[in-house]
Amino acid sequence: MPHSVSPIGYVRSCFKEKFAIPRQPRLAPAARGVLELLPPFDSGDAVAGLEQVSHVWLLFLFHQALESEPRLKVRPPRLGGNRMVGVFATRSTHRPNGIGQSVVKLDGVEPGRLLLSGIDLLDGTPVLDIKPYVPYADALTDARNEMASAAPETIAIEWSQAGLRQARSEALRLGEPLVELVEQCLAQDPRPAYQKPEPERRYGAQFWDVDVRWHYPAPGRIRVLEVARTMPQPD
Fold first, then answer.
1. CA 206, CA 177: separation in Å to the nearest integer?
2. Same domain for 16 and 109?
3. Beta bridge partners of 114
4. Where residue 213 sits, what CATH number does that domain have?
5. Where is the domain boundary, 138, 173, 188?
6. Total number of domains in the chain
7. Three-state DSSP class for 61?
8. pLDDT tens by residue, 175-229
9. What is the C-alpha to C-alpha distance for residues 99 and 3, in angstroms, rounded to an integer?
10. 3-class DSSP state for residue 51?
11. Domain identity same for 183 and 224
12. Whether residues 104 and 27 fall in one domain
């Protein structure tokens, strides 16, 4: 029987586009955001007691990946993007009902909003529910996942002098750990697993209101070239 759900709030995130978002939560501790709650959950009553919790589960919608036809098989990046497995064996964004879940760090509780870090959520993500992380029940020491038994290997990050200077300047303006955010996200190598880019090919992504440009000068290396504030859109 069809059942409708409504968001309890929306995430305001450092990630303004899907490219370069970590593929799992907590891989980029510097990734911060705010969950702004909607009425009637914004009064403070709904989050009373949550200050005793260090991490929360968020159930949310992949609002930019909703599909009318379900996918039975997907190509997970951990398998190189070339091998297909069942959708329920992965955490692919291509979900039957568009529902995702992430465990994130709870940095602060305020009436009407939660301060979060270690997120992997796009700006504007609708959140359906919040559940406290329960260590004795949620951290299973005997759990296994042979497809993803350990965190992915990271790629080395280096900076141009100008890029690092620009990033530090924008970090001061934003009051955010922008250098760490860029390094933690790019170290996950956001390009599709099957791509083997030429050194001259440039990639880019937006963090907060800052555009970051980089390339792959050699296998296993990323060089950040430029960091610049996004140009304001005309009215």
1. 14
2. yes
3. 35, 109
4. 3.30.2310.20
5. 138
6. 2
7. strand
8. 999 999 999 999 999 987 777 778 889 999 999 999 999 999 998 899 999 999 9
9. 14
10. helix
11. yes
12. yes
